[in-house]
UniProtKB/TrEMBL annotation:
It comes from Bos mutus grunniens (Wild yak). PROSITE patterns: EGF_2, VWFA. This is Matrilin-4. Its main location: secreted. Pfam families: EGF_CA, Matrilin_ccoil, VWA. The gene is MATN4. The lineage of its organism: Eukaryota, Metazoa, Chordata, Craniata, Vertebrata.
Amino acid sequence: MRGLLRWPLLLLLLQPWETQLQLAGPRCSSGPLDLVFVIDSSRSVRPFEFETMRQFLVGLLRSLDVGPNATRVGVIQYSSQVQSVFPLRAFSRREDMERAIRALVPLAQGTMTGLAIQYAMNVAFSVAEGARPPEAHVPRVAVIVTDGRPQDRVAEVAAQARARGIEIYAVGVQRADVGSLRAMASPPLNEHVFLVESFDVIQEFGRQFQGRLCTLDLCTEGDHGCEHQCVSVPGSYFCRGQAGFVLQQEQRSCRAIDHCSFGNHSCQHDCVSIYGGPQCRCREGYDLLPDGRSCQARDLCNGVDHGCEFQCVSEGFSYRCVCPEGRQLQADGKSCSRCREGHVDLVLLVDGSKSVRPQNFELVKRFVNQIVDFLDVSPEGTRVGLVQFSSRVRTEFPLGRYGTAAEVKQAVLAVEYMERGTMTGLALRHMVEHSFSEAQGARPRALNVPRVGLVFTDGRSQDNISVWAARAKEEGIVMYAVGVGKAVEEELREIASEPAELHVSYSPDFSTMTHLLENLKGSICPEEGIGAGTELRSPCECESLVEFQGRTLGALESLSQKLAQLTARLEDLENQLATQK
């Protein structure tokens, strides 16, 4: 029963205080003011204490000259989170504000005072929430009412708020931590820190606060001594540094803020302190990455239209074009010699399973055509065949069908996506048994034309690949494996010829796989001299034997003539030496 009797008695005590505060003097008309109350509603604030804060707000509102062009009022409450009760722009009538305050329900959680100050600084005092813009020079005042020790840091964020021109009053109720109140409040502390132990004391704070709102502009009345700016606030003034400066310890002179000295900039190279915080800067020849901290050697190839056919290499403040091994850079410094040093029978096995998806399958076809651009496609040069596989295998065109690169590329673009499963082992078997047969356009083994198979896949095979991967290599087929996305490295290595480092390529996604061309172009192009510039004929044919014999005899005769000339020159030298003696 004693607990039940406390509430009527408490309300009787509060009512005279609220009335007294309202009647303490005429409403303040000191000019425009943006005022935000930051109310602690953590679980440690007991119901009657929260009611004290509620009545304090109502009573103080009645002493203010509230209006759009006078004092604008906003209220936020906080515990473990921050809640806007109403922003500065919400109400222009005191009655509406009182109604919102009386309907306030405590959050009853932790005590994150630093988080509340951060919210007040960044949100509550923003122009979007109703605060007047800085150029209007309207004072900004925050009144923090709390009952305990903050569970987060308040000193640093309070300093930032004060640096932005927010005057902070820290009011503690009973158990409040004095050190935290002093860390939050604006100077001078004896005018901005209040510890409330009874209703009389909180009433006295209300009177003092009201009095400060209605005093003269001390910045214009005397010698304030501020180096940069003097800010007049109700009942007092304080000095403020210009953008990028903070006050010195004596609160009059200013120094530039060295944000880099805080040690938390994480810049890879250099840190530069600018207005608003630290900014990372890279040394000469490096560019700042999107994370704003890391640096990367400047790649001029990405910043200019280099026109390199194969690869652009940045070198300091310039760049150069390079070609893959076995190809020469042309006189224009950009294009590369074609792969014309030999003959190849090339069969491409392309994964058309459902996991590839239509848009990526188009990228695969474009990738295949980039390989074709590199080859010297002709009946006597390189022949190209294409096989697509999913749950089944389909020859799109065999080795002997097309005789030019343009025909092959057109046929590649016309290939239709199959979808379904991923039977890589079945595709390898089809390649070994059919694709490299003479019936499909492969040249006879006796001609020693290299046979190359290139498997392109994006995932794990749904059948066994071991038997036919080994069989392909036993048949003398040089195997390359290109994996994208979820391709399995073990399977790629099993498919590819040795060494795997030269025959396996991988890209994490389809959009970036073009970088694989560098390895493939340099590998697929046959070594210089293999079948280069000669007609492909069987060495066992009679005409070939006669031709070989003729070339051999001609070479021997040439060597005999050169030997005779060398012998004659030696005899002349011997005669000259004998004469000199």
